[in-house]
Amino acid sequence: RRVYGAGVNVDARSRVGQMLSLVADALSEPWNVAEVLSAAFDASGAQGVLLDNLCALTGTYRAAAAKSAVTLLDIGTAGTALPVGRRARVTGTSTIFETTALATIAAASSWVAATPYAEGAIVTSGGGLWRAVAAGTSGATAPTGAGPTHNDGTVTWAYQGAGTAFALAAALATVTGPLQGFAGSITTIETPVAGWAAVTNPLDAVPGRNLETDAELSARRALEIAGIGSSPLDAVRAEVSAVAGVSNVIV
């Protein structure tokens, strides 16, 4: 413009513009590299492995991706072995869980009147399996029918399915991420085994997570550094956020 005047056409499609782009592109590369290197010293600007390295200096490490976890209740014939890798799906979805340990189906204990039962206890009664969802002492009326629940003395039972033998097996989702598996939703057997008749999940799956993003990692680093204090609001927020199960904090 100094040579040809302010009105010269420098559009990228013009001849002058194309000549300028040859020089500009070459100059932009070292500038971009310099910008990345400069940002590597600033947690609010660093990205990827550079941010990982910066956060590691203060003991903060990127949270890896994790799979959702659940405990499957497998119903079937006593003595049936379920090898590692048996799969069950959340019915109506593509979410699949895979067992991580060998499990063997065994006969359930029969319900007994006037007996203390802890939460989570599983018994057989009336040809079905029942799980105690509220601890207490059984009364005189055994749980029967198809549920979904039965009040028995001070025990509350939840119907799990038809059968008299079961196994509990730990399982993980086949892919990482916060996949949902609400209680009673994992009911489709994907890898059948002779003697394995049905499957369910008494409790919700514990959701996994995706790989922590740069923004999440940078924010967590700032929170953890603030947690070194003992009384400022940021320190209180950091300490409460570190408690297992806490997902959101307002101080």
Query: What's the end-to-end separation, in Å?
Result: 57 Å
Instruction: Indicate the structural class.
Output: alpha+beta
Major sheet attributes: 7 strands, antiparallel
Helix content estimate: 10-25%
Order of helices and strands: HHEEEEEEEEEEEEEEEEHH
Number of helices: 4
Extended strand count: 16
The radius of gyration over CA amounts to 30 Å
Overall pLDDT confidence: 92
Given as residue ranges, the uncertain stretches (5+ residues, pLDDT < 50) are none
Net shape:
elongated
The fraction of residues in strands falls at: 25-35%
Short description:
With 251 residues, the chain is an alpha+beta fold. It has helices spanning 15-39, 48-56, 214-226, 233-241, and strands at 67-76, 81-82, 87-90, 96-99, 103-104, 106-107, 109-110, 116-117, 122-125, 128-134, 136-137, 149-152, 155-162, 165-176, 186-189, 196-200.
Descriptive account of the structure:
- This protein has 251 residues and is an alpha+beta fold.
- Helices cover 22% and strands 29% of the residues.
- The protein has four helices and 16 strands.
- The chain has helices at 15-39, 48-56, 214-226, 233-241, and strands at 67-76, 81-82, 87-90, 96-99, 103-104, 106-107, 109-110, 116-117, 122-125, 128-134, 136-137, 149-152, 155-162, 165-176, 186-189, 196-200.
- Strands 1, 3, 4, 6, 14, 15 and 16 form a seven-stranded antiparallel beta sheet that branches. A five-stranded mixed beta sheet has the order 7-9-10-13-12, with no helix packed on it.
- The mean pLDDT is 92.
